[in-house]
Write a structure and sequence with these properties.
Rossmann fold, binds 3-phosphoglyceric acid, about 15% strand, single chain, five-stranded parallel β-sheet, 12 strands, 2 domains, 12 helices, alpha/beta
């Protein structure tokens, strides 16, 4: 029986990415299936019933979804963050979960800079803005996106700092980045903070008032990570307490209405999560996902397993 590989994306890949995934799947003798722009988890449950492998983006892969899959062996999240997948439920069913680290990080970093430039120029409102040059940027978590941000920040002649509790200091310093020993030090030092931490039980709501209020004058918090890592009560408080604080984010916080109503010119939110929305990122992550599935079925390769 030919194995079935299903792509499920509420936010579709660029057409070329889909073509490339299909090509890899069919060349290897598998059946390619796709469901884009779907509505409701019940459609997802029906589609997954007899497939062997699944490729998703931020689509929620819940326990119920996994339980309705009778042949599923592998789920690949075409992207970095896998907080949308119930890893425990997958492990219980012996389903391997992988991500595709690094494949969309350049796109995310470019979005961070796009938003930073937009903000520093006052959203091109005709008044004098400011430059990124010589400003301090603090990279909160130095993974693939953090690394790209550092490189771009240097191109803009920014002073680059980072904090990452999981990396050796020397591995960050070799990029010419100054390493600080805590999140507290990072926030206290840098006017711009780029959030690149994953969303998990340790990081959810971890960006709190103490960190935010310690930021220097004209503080800008740049979030291309996840909205869940922000303590929104603290966010509202800092917006209220400090007129010089701005928040620019790939995806609006739940408290967006209050911010929009009260704090004009101090925020920018993408209408849809846009970090990975480039053809290049879609193609890279799509190809990596398809290849990882092929290598898993043909060679038992579990290199990017996260569960
Ligand atoms: C990721 O975790 O890779 C990014 O947040 C991109 O997510 P997306 O594929 O849903 O756009």
């Amino acid at each position: 029986m030919r194995k079935k590989i299903l792509v499920v994306t509420k936010k579709p890949f660029a057409p070329e990415a889909v073509n490339r995934i299909e090509e890899i799947v069919e060349k290897n003798g598998y059946i390619f299936l796709i469901m884009e722009n779907y509505r409701g988890q019940d459609n997802f449950e029906n589609a997954i019933y007899n497939v062997d492998a699944l490729i998703v983006r931020s689509d929620k892969v819940t326990k119920e979804i996994l339980q309705s899959a009778k042949n599923l062996k592998i789920v690949v999240r075409a992207g970095a963050g896998y907080d949308n997948i119930d890893l425990k439920a997958a492990t219980e069913k012996n389903i391997v979960v992988m991500n595709t680290p690094g494949q969309n990080s350049n796109a995310v970093a470019e979005l961070a800079f796009g938003m930073m430039l937009f903000k520093s120029r006052g959203f091109f409102n005709g008044k004098a803005g400011s430059e990124l040059k010589n400003k301090k940027i603090g990279i909160h978590a130095y993974g693939n996106v953090g690394r790209c941000i550092a490189k771009m920040a240097k191109g803009f002649s920014m002073e680059v700092y980072a904090f990452d509790p999981f990396l050796e200091k020397k591995d960050i310093e070799k990029d010419g980045v100054k390493v600080l020993n805590s999140a507290e030090e990072l926030y206290k030092t840098c006017q711009y903070i780029s959030l690149n931490i994953p969303s998990n039980k340790n990081t959810k709501k971890s960006i709190n008032i103490d960190l935010l209020k310690s930021m220097p004058e004209n503080a800008v918090l740049v979030n291309t990570a996840r909205k869940e890592v922000i303590c929104e009560k603290s966010l509202l408080q800092i917006f209220h307490d400090r007129k010089d604080f701005s928040y620019i984010s790939d995806l609006a916080p739940d408290c967006k209405d209050e911010i929009i109503e009260n704090y004009e010119n101090r925020y920018f939110f993408t209408p849809k999560k846009m970090g990975a929305q480039t053809a290049e990122a879609n193609i890279n992550a799509g190809i990596a996902s398809a290849n990882q599935i092929v290598n898993f079925f043909k060679k038992g390769d579990i290199t990017f397993k996260v569960n």
